[in-house]
User: Fold this.
Amino acid sequence: MNMSKVVFGFFVLLAATLNFGFVIGDLSDRNEHSIYELFAAITVSLIATVLKFGDRTQLGAVHLATSLVADLQLLAAVVVWVIAQQVSTHGLTSGAVASVVSLAAGALLANLVSVTLLVVETVTFHRG
Assistant:
């Protein structure tokens, strides 16, 4: 068993599941979307991105691209949350929460592509 592949797979899957956990629920209900879960999702996503830097294959490049997209979407979600809560005079409205969740859902899609690539890579691996 290749321990680096286990760690890589762990963080890719954890990034997707944390992201899913944040996105699930009523789109505009702030009480169903925890800032702590969003923070955990972005942290694990960034770790997964760092782990993808070592792969020099074409599939590795696509893995990295999906991870960068997820990071960008999650960072945008955090920025929207912070601006709405700390800068806006209206506070964290249901519209702002909907924007945050929508951005995180985009990151979830990128994470699902990454998980799919990981599964395809694993299934097509030939021992030689």
Q: What stands out?
A: Residues 16 and 38 are 12 Å apart (CA to CA). Residues 3-123 form one domain. The chain is about 75% helix and 0% strand.
